[in-house]
Write a structure and sequence with these properties.
The structure is a single chain. This protein is mostly helical. The relative contact order is 0.16. The chain is built from eight helices and two strands. Helix 3 packs across helix 4, helix 4 packs across helix 5 and helix 7 runs antiparallel to helix 8. The protein has a single domain, classed as putative 2-phosphosulfolactate phosphatase (Alpha-Beta Complex), CATH 3.90.1560.
């Protein structure tokens, strides 16, 4: 999806894992969507506010996924001066490992996507800090928080 193809348009995205997590968090004050590609942007957003934060890797019904562990670690590692839980410290440790990308590519989700012909998508999702957009849940839509001053 290039900016030219999606700019100004409503995009319908389906993710059973993200939907499951978001529905469990609906009572929270602010919900952001972070990943490897926007880790620094999400961290900057969070550092500009003095809120308690929970980073919740989606995983699947089968448990933690290595790419979500890396994404959570990338976000947490980008936050300075925080009091991290042991889970966050473990995610940061994984993310700081020199071979985290190759390990993610060996994970079951990346392997399945590669098998289905989506290797370019996996490579795109592993481009650390390639996006400055911070999506957030507003009502029942995920939107660019910059457009809503949230």
């Amino acid at each position: 999806m290039s900016p030219e193809n999606v700019s100004g348009r409503i995009i319908l995205y389906s993710s059973s894992n993200l939907t499951r997590i978001l529905s469990g968090l609906e009572k929270r004050h602010r919900i952001l969507v972070g990943a490897i590609i926007n880790a620094r942007a999400v961290a900057n957003y969070l550092e500009a506010r003095d809120d308690d934060v929970a980073i919740v890797p989606c995983g699947t019904r089968l448990g933690t996924t290595i790419e979500d562990l890396a994404g959570g670690g990338a976000i947490a590692a980008s936050i300075e001066h925080a009091d991290f839980s042991d889970d966050a410290l473990a995610a940061i440790g994984f993310f700081n490992a020199k071979d985290w990308k190759s390990l993610v590519k060996r994970g079951r989700i990346a392997a399945r996507l590669k098998e289905l012909g989506f290797q370019r998508d996996v490579d795109h999702c592993l481009r650390l800090n390639s996006s400055s957009v911070v999506p957030g849940l507003v009502g029942n839509k995920i939107v660019n928080t910059a457009k809503f001053g949230r």
